[in-house]
């Protein structure tokens, strides 16, 4: 767990993103025991999971698919340089996080020159699968600063350790802990005022 104690908001975030992870049908232990051997296997096993990760970071399915496609293209270019196929999943996560950051930076730049617009609404199907509590948490995640959202999504949806999050985002383990703490506080305030 991130932080010293488990607050109500942390439990809610963990429940919501854990619920989404379960909906993915992906089991972390299965992935580790049956590492993909080819790029095609990796694509078949990880593509939708990476798209869902990107959607949680950029909040737009079409853009998320583009980010993931770019990540797989980069992996294809560097496939021969990987130390083993297990490293490919980490490469993909990092590429998806970095690609999502680039998208968000471009959005920010575009917004400076255009009037702000409302983000696209989530699909009715995805919202129907979530309870009202889960919907409120997913909506509140969208209001967090980029790094805070990344840390919570990677921790509770990606089921990653602090070390893995630090590696994927390029920050120190201590920064991951403090960012998670601040993110949970911000969610507490948002959900408390709702």
Automatic annotation (TrEMBL):
It comes from the Bacteria. InterPro entries: RNA_pol_sigma-70-like, RNA_pol_sigma-70_dom, RNA_pol_sigma-E_actinobac, RNA_pol_sigma70_r2, RNA_pol_sigma70_r4_t2, RNA_pol_sigma_r2, RNA_pol_sigma_r3/r4-like, WH-like_DNA-bd_sf. The keyword Transcription regulation applies. GO terms for biological process: DNA-templated transcription initiation. GO terms for molecular function: DNA binding; sigma factor activity. Pfam families: Sigma70_r2 (PF04542), Sigma70_r4_2 (PF08281). Residues 135-187 form the RNA polymerase sigma factor 70 region 4 type domain. PANTHER family: ECF RNA POLYMERASE SIGMA FACTOR SIGM, RNA POLYMERASE ECF-TYPE SIGMA FACTO. NCBIfam families: SigE-fam_strep, sigma70-ECF. This is RNA polymerase sigma24 factor. It comes from Actinopolyspora erythraea.
């Amino acid at each position: 767990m991130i932080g010293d104690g488990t607050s109500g908001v942390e439990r809610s975030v963990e429940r919501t993103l854990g619920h989404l992870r379960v909906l993915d049908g992906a089991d972390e232990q299965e992935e580790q025991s049956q590492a993909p051997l080819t790029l095609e296997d990796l694509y078949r096993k990880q593509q939708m999971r990476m798209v869902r990760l990107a959607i949680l970071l950029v909040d737009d399915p079409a853009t998320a698919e583009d980010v993931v496609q770019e990540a797989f293209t980069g992996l294809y270019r560097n496939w021969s340089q990987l130390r083993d196929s297990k490293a490919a999943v980490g490469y993909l996560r990092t590429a998806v996080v970095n690609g999502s950051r680039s998208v968000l930076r471009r959005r920010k730049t575009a917004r400076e020159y255009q009037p702000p617009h409302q983000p696209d609404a989530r699909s009715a199907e995805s919202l129907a699968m979530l309870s009202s509590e889960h919907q409120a948490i997913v909506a509140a995640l969208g209001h967090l600063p980029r790094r805070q959202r990344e840390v919570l999504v990677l921790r509770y949806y990606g089921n990653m350790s602090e070390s893995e999050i630090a590696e994927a985002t390029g920050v120190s383990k201590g920064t991951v802990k403090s960012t998670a703490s601040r993110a949970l506080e911000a969610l507490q305030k948002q959900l408390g005022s709702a």
